[in-house]
Design a protein that fits this description.
The protein is α+β, with helices and mostly antiparallel strands. It contains seven helices and 21 strands. A hairpin with a 2-residue loop joins strand 9 and strand 10 (141-142). It binds flavin-adenine dinucleotide (FAD).
Length: 298
Amino acid sequence: MPDYSQLKAKFGERCVLGAPAAGFTTYKAGGAAEALAEPCSPEEFSWLAAWCRANNAPLTVLGGGSNVLVSDKGLPGVTALTGRLSGVEARGAVITAQAGAPWDLVARLSAEKGLAGLEKTSGIPGSVGGAVRMNAGAFGQETFDRLKAVEALDPEGRPVRLEKKDIPHGYRSTQGLERLIIISASFEFTPGEPGVLLQDRSCVLASREVKQPLDLPSAGSVFKRPPGDYASRLIDAAGLKGLRVGGAAVSAKHAGFIVNAGGATAADIYALIGEVKARVKAASGVELELEQILLGEF
Ligand SMILES: Cc1cc2nc3c(=O)[nH]c(=O)nc-3n(C[C@H](O)[C@H](O)[C@H](O)COP(=O)(O)OP(=O)(O)OC[C@H]3O[C@@H](n4cnc5c(N)ncnc54)[C@H](O)[C@@H]3O)c2cc1C
């Protein structure tokens, strides 16, 4: 294990050794981060990247932790949270947001300002950095529809700027960003009518309330949508709603979600993911692909 005393000296209370994943993931499950740090400027992120490099410590960057499952064995090295980089600015047709800003702030602000194109992504939990990395989306809109450029740091902590065309991306996937620390992103919109956009936003938020198990810890849809179908439909059709392993359960409200129904370990959730995949394959022949990101050793 690296000597974390320098990290503690640099970040003070913003560095915690052995921080349980329940505190920084929406599954509220999994082991501890060896060291959890909360840099509050791009310069601090750059320092941290260089420190990790020099000390041979792996660096994991997380926003809201709303699309990850952390192993019960924990996360080696440093886990850096972006929540303290949370500035958002609208200028004309462009919104620029720091990586740790809540994604929904961008969705709301764009609708309020009459900037069209991301209003239907309202209510996606997590951060701007996470939304860009995942190309998060909903109701036919996705982050990359409006992405203009990303400011990031490379593994040595040096600034890099990527235009949208430099980032290969697809449905809930991007290439190349996994090795970078996203610091901020800008989005360019087309004009829209604020009243209409805010109405769309309200409909989307209401639909989420009705359809999703928002009262229990989860990380949203477990699997990607297979071509021409929905993972939730296939899971429901296989009769798997309510299926349990330990404290993990396939949501009875939305079959695409696995919820932590109380005291679930990461191993419970992981085993249930495997069980659902196997039973859907047996019932329909479809091989479901994981959308969520596994962190640590499984
Ligand atoms: C109730 C619920 C509903 C959801 N609904 C949707 C939905 O409708 N559509 C959808 O697409 N998703 C949905 N999700 C999943 C999730 O919210 C999104 O994928 C979200 O964009 C993840 O953001 P995050 O900040 O939480 O990312 P995290 O979970 O923190 O991280 C996800 C990945 O991004 C990387 N990452 C995060 N920040 C950075 C950064 N600054 N630099 C580099 N890498 C970074 C992480 O290392 C990790 O690999 C839902 C989740 C929940 C719990």
